[in-house]
Amino acid sequence: MKFIVSSSALLKHLQQINGVINANTVLPILEDFLFEIEDKKLTVVATDLETVMGVQMDVESKTDGKICIPARILMDSLKNISDQPLTFNIDKNFSVEITSDNGKYKMMGENPDNFPKAPEADDANNFTVTSSALLNGINKTLFAVSNDDLRPAMTGIFFELSKNAVQFVATDAHRLVRYKRTDATNANADSFIVPKKPLNLLKNALPDNDDEITVSYNNNHFFVTHGETRLSCRLIDARFPDYKVVIPADNPYKLTVNRTDFQSALRRINIFSNKSTNQVVLSINGSELQLTAQDVDFSSEGNERMNCEYDGEDLQIAFNAKFLIELLNASESENVVVELSTPNKAGIIKPTEKEENEELLMLVMPLMLNV
Amino acid sequence: MVQPITYIAHFDLDSFFYSVEVLNNPELAGKAVIVGGSRERGVVTTCSYEARKFGVHSAMPMKKAVELCPHAILVRGSHGQYGKFSKWVTDIIASKAPKFQKASIDEFYLDLTGMDKFFNPFQWTIELRQLIMDETRLPISFGLASNKLVAKIATDEAKPNGYLFIQHGKEKDFLAPLPVKKIPGVGTHTLSVLNEMGIELIGDILRLPKNELENRLGKWGLELWDKAQGLHHSTVSEWREAKSISTENTFETNTNDVEFLLSELIRMTERVAFELRQDEKLAGCIAVKIRYPNFETTSKQTTIDYTFRDDEFIPVAKDLFHQLYKKGTPVRLLGVRLSDFANITMQGNLFDDVSRKSNLYKAIDNIKLKYGKNYLAKGRSIK
């Protein structure tokens, strides 16, 4: 097997899928890329057994064939080779020889037949969304996903489909984000949980444009193909918590603030908060919002006042400032409305203006003092 | 600016656990008494001076101690009692001393620097010692010197039931005739290296060039050379809040019974969580420790959301245990530790009613406080 490929093009493609490979894998072959040539098309695949990601590119080649090449050494060498055509020569014993203008490099590949097979999209359902819609769905919710392995259901994004709509829901039990798109064609009532890692990879591979993307899924797997890139992963086999019942139906008090001003104030105040709780107290009196934080251990404190619109009784409520800052990041609107009730019940954050076809709802639980 | 003359006093309660036992049971006075764990596997926590004459010392395996001093009365320590007496002594010192550090349950450093303008520090310390002994009826010794190191060694020389003041400038004269093992940090390894070099007394160290000691012992050699001269710069750092709460249990016999180990783990987790709630803290980190019969000790910790609840600690502790435990291997010791404390501010949970659970734990703790820590436990941990 022999092929010629541009060094920079190969590196660019490999960088898209390199993130799949774990640093410490059980099976040595999982440290390899699978190279497969069929009719001058090179497909490179990486897997960690949960996530499989592949890219395709054109190469010059007279024959078809496949080989497993160690990812680390290949990436390291490509990063240090200037842009030029590289010739790959692979012999029967899986020995790989790369010829460049500068010289020859040799490494040991592995038998491609031992590379794990990618899951097939059997019995798959599918729906279509734009690339930017899917990208937004991931970007606006992924940060709220839990890292707690003891609660696997929360370690991914919950895809909740209904007639021509898809909702992306993520929570770590302290906050929750739900982002709804009403422009998903062919969607029907269904749901599944996709783990964090493949979504992170997808986020970096998808363009922010109107390209149509077909998302497929069956009982166990999730598949996305876009141009030369395809990704599949195992779904999280757990039941997502019944989040609808925890969304407060009527939080009577409504606080409207400028989103970026509020976020900047939180960032400044949070510097002076206790580092383990990031507690910031919001005191709302009439049309004035006061933010205070303190760290008793280091005798530091911060205090700011800002204007707001407020409809409700005077209230004092504490939040983890980090949570609020991250949530405010997920919105793009100029102003946000924070709906509150009592100091120990969840607050709702919503943008005041919204784009067509989308809907954003965020929930955050307060910090409770002296429970 | 002229450096003020420093005065550091080191107080040490004489065979503290034994003294407490004597207060509880006066018949023990004047007899050879060994306080410690079980006869088979425990170690000596302390012993009376009568038992020391037979070569018994603290940290010695109980088995060996009994061999050396077969007629000794063995007493199982009662930890709650010791804490109470220790706190009593701490309170007395806190009410008198301008700055002090509690180095352990029975050891205190006091920084008296500057007091010499108003009092005679030696006289003041003698009076403090008398006050402690009058109030608590516990014997205590002290050493007074220009730094912590010399003060500690002086206390050691003053014991039992005495005191010693090493005048400024006399540190070297005081240390020189003492055996090198009196310097804290000199253990069996250092001792054998030093003996090999022909060093027996602290004074011998000073006759060597500094770099020769460094060649043999590295950085520690330099430190040791300074210490031998009576130089030491560590300051008295004031008493601080506990940074972790832990408990561990060495089993009577090694066991690989996972059910039993898990029930022990739950019992210990409930115990540290109870302590945590009594301190009105939340913990953000939990660790599990396992020691195998060959003394190989492993531990694993993880960060968690700040909490004080048993039902949040226990699954994590079990998970850590399973990650850590080498299946089938007998276990000698199991331990649980909580750390990274925060003040009571609970992050609300969308799917779990936090305030209802905290009421539950308040009720549980009230029962434990009234009837004893072991009155109420999870079914799983009852044997």
From TrEMBL, chain A:
Keyword Zinc: no
Assigned GO CC terms: cytoplasm; DNA polymerase III complex
A Pfam family assignment: DNA_pol3_beta
SMART domains: POL3Bc (SM00480)
InterPro entries, A to Z: DNA_clamp_sf (IPR046938), DNA_polIII_beta (IPR001001), DNA_polIII_beta_C (IPR022635), DNA_polIII_beta_cen (IPR022637), DNA_polIII_beta_N (IPR022634)
Subcellular location: Cytoplasm
This protein's record includes keyword Oxidoreductase: no
GO biological process: DNA strand elongation involved in DNA replication
Main location: cytoplasm
Keywords recorded for this protein, A-Z: Cytoplasm, DNA replication, DNA-binding, DNA-directed DNA polymerase, Nucleotidyltransferase, Transferase
Single annotated GO MF: DNA binding
Domain DNA polymerase III beta sliding clamp C-terminal: start-end pairs: 245-362
Domain DNA polymerase III beta sliding clamp N-terminal residue range list: 1-117
Location of the DNA polymerase III beta sliding clamp central domain: 129-242
NCBIfam families per UniProt: dnan
Subunit structure: Forms a ring-shaped head-to-tail homodimer around DNA.
Function: Confers DNA tethering and processivity to DNA polymerases and other proteins. Acts as a clamp, forming a ring around DNA (a reaction catalyzed by the clamp-loading complex) which diffuses in an ATP-independent manner freely and bidirectionally along dsDNA. Initially characterized for its ability to contact the catalytic subunit of DNA polymerase III (Pol III), a complex, multichain enzyme responsible for most of the replicative synthesis in bacteria; Pol III exhibits 3'-5' exonuclease proofreading activity.
Family of the protein in this entry: Belongs to the beta sliding clamp family.
Protein name (record): Beta sliding clamp
Origin organism lineage: Bacteria, Pseudomonadati, Bacteroidota, Chitinophagia, Chitinophagales
From TrEMBL, chain B:
EC class name: transferase
Cofactor field: Mg(2+)
GO CC aspect terms: cytosol
Catalytic activity: DNA(n) + a 2'-deoxyribonucleoside 5'-triphosphate = DNA(n+1) + diphosphate
Active site: E107
Any single GO BP term: SOS response
Keywords: Cytoplasm, DNA damage, DNA repair, DNA replication, DNA-binding, DNA-directed DNA polymerase, Magnesium, Metal-binding, Mutator protein, Nucleotidyltransferase, Transferase
Site, Substrate discrimination: residue positions: F17
UniProt subcellular location: Cytoplasm
Domain UmuC, chain residue ranges per copy: 8-187
Any GO molecular function: DNA-directed DNA polymerase activity
Subunit-level organization: Monomer.
Known function: Poorly processive, error-prone DNA polymerase involved in untargeted mutagenesis. Copies undamaged DNA at stalled replication forks, which arise in vivo from mismatched or misaligned primer ends. These misaligned primers can be extended by PolIV. Exhibits no 3'-5' exonuclease (proofreading) activity. May be involved in translesional synthesis, in conjunction with the beta clamp from PolIII.
Protein name stated in the entry: DNA polymerase IV
Lineage: Bacteria, Pseudomonadati, Bacteroidota, Chitinophagia, Chitinophagales
